[in-house]
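job 3f2a | input accepted
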Amino acid sequence: ENADYYIAVTGKDEDNLVGCHIAKTIFHVRNTVAHVNNPANIELFELLKVDHVYSRSVILADIIEQDIAQEGMRVIFNIPNQKMNILEVELSPTSAAVGRTLAEYKFPDETRVALLIHDDGSTEVPRGNSIMLEGDRLLLVTTSDDYDEIFNELVKN
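job 3f2a | predicted structure (157 res):
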């Protein structure tokens, strides 16, 4: 009853779910953590208010996604339990953004520029009048749904 956390890591999803449910409802544990063996069950765990849900296969897929980068673009960080990620993009010489200010360039709706890293290594907190140059790297907060558009417009174009 005085526990701050209950952590369920058995090999059976049903045991982990029931354990977390009992910990939360009967023993009033503040935070529950569960390992999910079958990623298809993640939504059920979240629906039943398990506070933190982890799946080895999802974590492994995220690591692989971070390691496999398209040339000029890579995922820096997957924000847990969110659709948003931090993406690093290097502006190619033919990028549609080169020579334009951040205010002039139309980024995808769910994309925000978090940091501008110039080719010389200097950094800039992005402002509307910041000019993007060839070789600059942008740290973007974005969704994976926008990766193709970002790659085609900023890197490949």
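job 3f2a | The two ends are 59 Å apart (CA to CA).
job 3f2a | closed
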